[in-house]
Amino acid sequence: MADVRVDGISKYFGDFGAVKEVSTVFEEGTVTVLLGPSGCGKTTLMRMIVGLETPTTGSVMIGDTDVTRVPTNKRQIGMVFQYPVIYRGTTVARNLELPLVAAKMDSAARKKRIDEMAEIIGLTDVLETNVDRLDNAGRQKVAVAREVARQPEVLLFDEPITNVDLTSKLELKRSLKQLFTELRQTIIYVTHDQTEAMSLADKIALMNTGRIVQLDAPRVVYDRPDDVFAGWFLGSPGMNFLRTGFVVEGSSLHSPLLASPIPVGAEAQHATTMGIRPEQLTASLDEQPDHVRAEIVDKAITIGGRMLLGVKVQDLEIKAVVEHDIGKNASSSIWIKLPQENLHLFDAHDRKIEAGLQSVG
Ligand code: ATP
What we know:
The chain has nine helices and 21 strands. The protein folds into two domains: 228 residues, P-loop containing nucleotide triphosphate hydrolases (Rossmann fold, 3-Layer(aba) Sandwich); 111 residues, CATH 2.40.50.100. β18 and β19 form a beta hairpin. By secondary structure, the chain is of the alpha+beta class. The chain binds adenosine-5'-triphosphate (ATP). Adenosine-5'-triphosphate binds next to α1.
């Protein structure tokens, strides 16, 4: 097991930068999920780490070894793709065994390793089954177990759940979680699906237009986005952003959305955007201290049975995700509070203001 370091790595196709000057460490024994919208450069970055693409600039280190010019098959990396790569026409056990035979492992050790893998990922009952008889999720489990069993230094997963049918997705995700938790290998996992990222990642490396914009634990990326893009991309719906309707005067933030001004640090003077997640504001049917009255302009049911409301204070419209009972019983208006600890301020470059709201007691 080893960490992976990329230093100043870029990939240009002609004039177009698919990955631009990325420098980061994917820590040993950690699952780092590369998350971002289609076309942001996730696959290109992963292909450079695995050696399927030559960087235009920069280097890749696995542990202490510079592998930038080392061919893929010499990199000690295992790779799982969208479509399962397996040996057809033979059993699950044989699929897991062949790479171990190639690695010259003796037969007792092979059997032990295969049984362990099968147990963790849930293939024990089908070890003697021909892989052709498995569904897509089963085959993908075989592909994963095969790569993991040979214990490479690093494992890369490129959207391994994307092409599995909906009913099997959850089960495969559960198996991967189990595997990742038990093995604690160095894993880099590419997906565009934020739910998958939130549930599988120790760390999320959020990408946008060829750059990693934030690398943190999932909860940190969600609760403390470094920029407007991170606030927008994570969450469903993403963060509310207000470009108008607030003002910083001295050490106070004023807004019609706030019952009273909130104390802020000096840096808040540079705020051009205020943000709050729809599910992180407080709502009540009755008048409450520190709440303001908001007109309801829209109502919809969200996943999980909560209600998504469009609410308006003066001319400021935001989204609020509230408990179903509150949403259902609210008629024309509701009382809302934007708790200070859930408010975010961003500057003119859309970057978070460090000495903004969260740092004020
Ligand atoms: P997706 O999830 O859609 O695969 P991604 O984040 O993995 O997206 P990449 O596949 O890395 O993105 O692609 C990043 C950008 O680089 C895209 O605009 C893509 O069209 C471009 N690109 C990738 N490979 C090549 C290539 N060989 N030649 C030209 N452009 C390329």
